[in-house]
Design brief:
Length: 699
């Protein structure tokens, strides 16, 4: 192996929605500037690398999906390394560093990365660099950026030690010199805030991971008098700081307009996860009153002519388009209004510097421009810093250019979080805020992620209603704000609400209406089975359900299924069932008042409801939230979980409900077990591990 190849390291990524791949590409781009070569592959491409014989350091970037699972692209890899016949020294030769991406809003934070990390350690692999765990709920870059910064010294040290072990003493001096130089550079960086000044127009900046500027480099417009920062305006010290901004990502996509006619691809070709089914919407009911704060809708789909199968507790995905008016607005800004129906051919740009460049799998090679913008690209995605960096090059106004540089710089990290990430800003918002920014279509294809199908919990039982699938959702609303001049509805929920408007029956707040209509509208769906969130296999086992608001959705399916089983098997023993439901107002958003029917026929043993916004004249105010009602039933909850070995299910909003419910359960266990809080938390952890405390939550 030649000397140059010893400066190689293996870079693997496992991604679900593209974030881990983007981070890996950033590492690959920066490697060259540090005299290293990253051999980058998706972790699923096991024919292109071999960890059993890998001698160079390995860097792994891996995300987490679902309820703590590794991404789909890592499933085969994880299954392979979890082979119990592998000896404990199987990877004793391997040295690696791992960066996990996750979201602490969910229970099993970074569990995809933790699973791989733990198993590699069990098989004898050694860290050459500490594991990093980045949190998408506060901003991945808060961990990702410093982790990458420290990676280069760790890699060079690992390569140096590797050469020493191999006895290649003639190479040690060169690597030691490189390490010494790097350490000296870091020392200098810490001592001085002045760094090399590079002009944006300098071609060399494209390959650099550091671009610093003084204000003299840009003819800034006169500073605004505002004392508060905003999306388009910064204040001291950021407005006069030298900036460290990301390297300019290499262009790699070319779009050619064609005059010939043709047909757009079928939507099923956009989905690789599972078989898709186009099914009619047969029923739509508005479950909330017009004056409710949120609009909740129930849709029923006819799946009788398909092979679609599900169990109560499962989820499924809806393939949805972007808002048509937003797409047309984007076309107008890009100056392509007249070309929306023209066919385009998307290819990799010849001579691109991007390693392993290929046309994104979610982009058809040939389709109309509108098809790409409507069905393929997530135009509502929050722009990442690499995208902002690329948009700088498309912006002509000096002040706007500077502000975009600030927002993607390390110095502007807090502004990025506040005005872009937390404000849920999308590409259209940026183009309105920075009108001199005129990106190319190829740039959008390079940087906008795949338009993801939206997941919903099933709210029915195929045993109770054969050939039917129901689901419930709130129409999501994003109000206007300083960074977004217009209010918007959720991509999928807004589209569904508009689609089924003709089906909505005037009678509200009941599922017993005859809101049937001829099946005219169809939607495309595919299954997403839930491996754990199902009824207990033994019907005699009791269980507790906690589902305020639309979190009640899967429990309707549970109860329908249980009712049918009771009818079909009168000789079976059935455990008791508890349901804790809450909403704001009893008369406005009590979604399923027919819950009383389940109570009356014995399917539901205990129904506990609460209404957080209703006023009360009672001497003792009733409980407002489900966690409060749980505490009132502490002895029964503890009995079901501890003595009767029952199950506990939670569905709904994580941040404002599921965590509070979890805290309430810990308090209940602590009191009823007469144990301290730590012991109660351990008991809850055991319940989670045994799959008896289960969550289906969203942030």
């Amino acid at each position: 192996m030649c000397c140059e190849s010893k400066r190689r390291f293996l870079l693997l990524y496992a991604t679900q929605k593209g974030q881990a791949k983007a981070v890996a590409e950033e590492i690959w781009q920066q490697a060259g500037a540090h005299g290293l070569e990253a051999d980058m592959h998706c972790i699923s491409e096991m024919d292109k690398y071999n960890l059993e014989t890998e001698e160079d350091p390995v860097v792994i970037v891996i995300s987490t999906t679902g309820t703590g699972d590794p991404p789909d692209t890592a499933r085969k890899f994880v299954k392979k390394i979890q082979d119990k016949t592998l000896p404990p020294d199987h990877f004793a030769h391997l040295q690696y560093g791992l960066l996990g991406l996750g979201d602490s809003e969910y229970m099993f934070f970074c569990n995809g990365g933790r699973t791989v990390d733990r198993r590699l350690q069990e098989l004898g692999a050694q860290h050459f660099y500490d594991t990093g765990l980045a949190d998408d709920s506060v901003g991945l870059e808060l961990v990702v950026d410093p982790w990458i910064d420290g990676l280069w010294l760790a890699l060079k040290k690992a390569l140096q030690l590797q050469k020493e072990k191999e006895g290649m003493n003639n190479s040690v001096d060169a690597v030691s010199s490189s390490l010494s130089t790097a350490l000296h550079a870091v020392h200098e960086l810490n001592l001085s805030s002045e760094v090399q000044n590079l002009k944006l127009e300098d071609e060399g900046a494209r390959g650099s991971d550091l671009l610093s500027q003084k204000l003299d480099d840009i003819n800034l417009v006169a500073p605004a008098r505002d004392t508060e920062p905003s999306l388009v305006h910064s204040v001291l010290p950021l407005s006069q700081s030298a900036l460290n901004i990301p390297a300019l990502p290499p262009e790699y996509i070319e779009v050619q307009f064609q005059e010939s006619e043709g047909k757009n691809p079928h939507l099923s070709s956009l989905i690789s996860e599972a078989s898709t089914f186009e099914v009619p919407v047969t029923k739509a009911v508005q479950l909330t009153r017009e004056d409710a704060i949120k609009t909740s809708l129930l849709l029923e789909l006819d799946i009788s002519d398909t092979a679609f199968e599900y169990q109560p507790g499962d989820a499924f995905c809806v393939i949805c388009p972007n808002n048509i008016s937003e797409v047309e607005e984007l076309l107008h800004i890009l100056g392509l209004s007249e070309k929306g129906d023209d066919f385009v051919c998307v290819k990799v740009k010849q001579g691109t510097k991007k390693k392993g460049a290929s046309r994104p799998q979610h982009i058809p090679e040939r389709s109309t421009l509108k098809f790409i913008l409507i069905w393929c690209l997530e135009i509502r995605a929050i722009p990442k810093k690499a995208f902002l960096r690329a948009l700088v090059e498309c912006t002509s106004d000096a002040g706007e250019k500077r502000r975009l540089q600030e927002l993607c710089s390390r110095q502007g990290a807090s502004d990025y979080t506040r005005f872009i990430r937390d404000s849920n800003v999308c590409l259209l918002d940026l183009l309105h805020a920075f009108p001199s920014c005129k990106p190319s279509l190829s740039l959008l294809i390079e940087h906008l992620p795949k338009l993801q199908a939206r997941s919903y919990s099933v709210s029915s039982s195929n045993l109770y209603q054969p050939g039917r699938l129901s689901f419930v959702f709130n129409v999501v609303e994003f109000p206007a704000g300083p960074s977004r001049p217009f209010s918007r509805e959720g991509v999928c929920t807004g589209w569904l609400a508009e689609l089924i408007a003709p089906l909505l029956h005037p009678s509200k707040n009941t599922l017993d209406t005859k809101g049937e209509s001829s099946p005219t509208e169809k939607i495309s769906i595919f299954p997403r089975p839930n491996n754990a969130f199902h009824l207990p296999a033994d019907p005699s086992v009791p269980f507790i359900m906690v589902g305020p608001g639309t979190g009640i959705s899967p429990f309707i399916g549970f109860l329908q299924h249980r009712q049918k089983l009771r009818e079909q098997h009168p000789d079976w023993e059935f455990g008791e069932t508890w349901l804790f439901f809450g909403c704001r107002h009893q008369d406005r958003d009590y979604l399923f008042k027919q819950l009383r029917c389940f109570l009356e026929n014995g399917t539901l043993t205990h129904l506990k409801v609460c209404f957080s916004r209703d006023s009360s004249t009672a001497e003792v105010a009733p409980p407002k939230y489900v966690q409060d009602v749980l505490r009132l039933c502490a002895k029964e909850v503890a009995r079901v979980l501890l003595k009767d070995r029952g199950y506990f299910y939670i569905c709904g909003d994580k941040k404002h409900m599921a965590d509070d419910v979890s805290d309430a359960v810990v308090d209940i266990l602590s009191v009823e077990m007469e144990a301290d809080k730590l012991e109660a938390m351990k008991t809850l952890a055991v319940l989670r591990e045994a799959k008896r405390y289960l969550q289906d939550v969203w942030s």
